[in-house]
Amino acid sequence: MAGPRPVVLSGPSGAGKSTLLKKLLKDYEGVFGFCVSHTTRNPRPGEEDGKGLNCLPMLLGATLLPVADVLSSVSSEDYHFVSRETMQQGINNGEFIENAEFSGNMYGTSKASVEDVQAQNLICILDVDIQGVKNIKKTDLNPIYVSIQPPSIEILEKRLRDRQTETEESLQKRLEAARLDMELSKEPGIFDIVIINDDLEEAYEKLKEVLTECINQLQEAKNDILFYVSLP
Ligand SMILES: Nc1nc2c(ncn2[C@@H]2O[C@H](COP(=O)(O)OP(=O)(O)O)[C@@H](O)[C@H]2O)c(=O)[nH]1
Ligand SMILES: Nc1ncnc2c1ncn2[C@@H]1O[C@H](COP(=O)(O)OP(=O)(O)O)[C@@H](O)[C@H]1O
């Protein structure tokens, strides 16, 4: 696929991926773009359903909102929340790069979601579980693979409980998946880098360090374009 090299963030549920990602997207607006996945799980309070840039003309037409308002409304999408039937249909139609079952729900990365980000010449960031990592390795996406890990399973459990988003059943499923994820992340060759998210600021600094080269490359490419565009 065309565009700058994507970044895959993976790691146990509750490790801090979304927290780090949101910081990165805020600090590097115009550099990174989030790939909005599909899921069959229910939205949490405050989560935004992905309207997707594919719907932009429709949104503009239907609401007659100024373009800036529409763009800001699509910038904080969490997921495309869909039914199992819709998701399965999309998978059957070959619309997904990868998909997986996690904690009783389906999740997947659509080709359109990646292309939406890449078409804006942004570095596409994907947040996927370990099955997603394995499946993406079979594609031609060629991303940088970053694993975000908690300092320990006990701390992970505390963070998940404090987040207050899970039922006891879903929490136990997440902890079970986390044990496997924590083991697999130690295997050489799966991830380019494993970051332990103990102190949030330190973890964020490490993440930025890993991504420095691709951030600089993208910014240089954008500066070149600006230079040529501004030539008389
Ligand atoms: N394979 C795959 N995993 C995904 C996708 N989107 C999210 N996930 C993973 O699904 C798991 C559960 O995500 P979520 O329900 O948002 O819970 P949270 O990670 O605890 O906030 C996490 O490990 C995510 O990385 C996707 O498109 N594909
Ligand atoms: N370094 C950290 N120290 C303490 N709490 C953290 C840290 N990183 C994240 N958290 C908190 O842990 C919880 C899980 O983080 P989150 O970003 O939702 O994880 P994930 O997206 O990997 O599921 C959130 O409530 C978040 O505020």
Automatic annotation (TrEMBL):
MF-aspect GO terms:
ATP binding; GMP kinase activity
Superkingdom field: Eukaryota
Q: Which Pfam families match?
A: Guanylate_kin (PF00625)
The protein's predominant localisation is cytoplasm
Q: In this protein, which residues make up the domain named Guanylate kinase-like?
A: 4-212
Stated EC number for the protein is 2.7.4.8
Subcellular compartments: Cytoplasm, Cytosol; Photoreceptor inner segment
Q: Which reaction does it catalyse?
A: GMP + ATP = GDP + ADP
Recorded hits in InterPro entries, A to Z, give: GK/Ca_channel_bsu (IPR008145), Guanylate_kin-like_dom (IPR008144), P-loop_NTPase (IPR027417)
Q: Which Gene3D superfamilies match?
A: P-loop containing nucleotide triphosphate hydrolases
Q: Which GO terms describe its cellular component?
A: cytosol; photoreceptor inner segment
* Chain segments annotated as coiled-coil in the UniProt record: 161-224
Entry keywords, A to Z: ATP-binding, Coiled coil, Cytoplasm, Kinase, Nucleotide-binding, Transferase
Give the family, as the similarity comment puts it.
Belongs to the guanylate kinase family.
Q: How does it assemble?
A: Monomer. Interacts with RD3.
The name of this protein is Guanylate kinase
Give the source species: Scleropages formosus
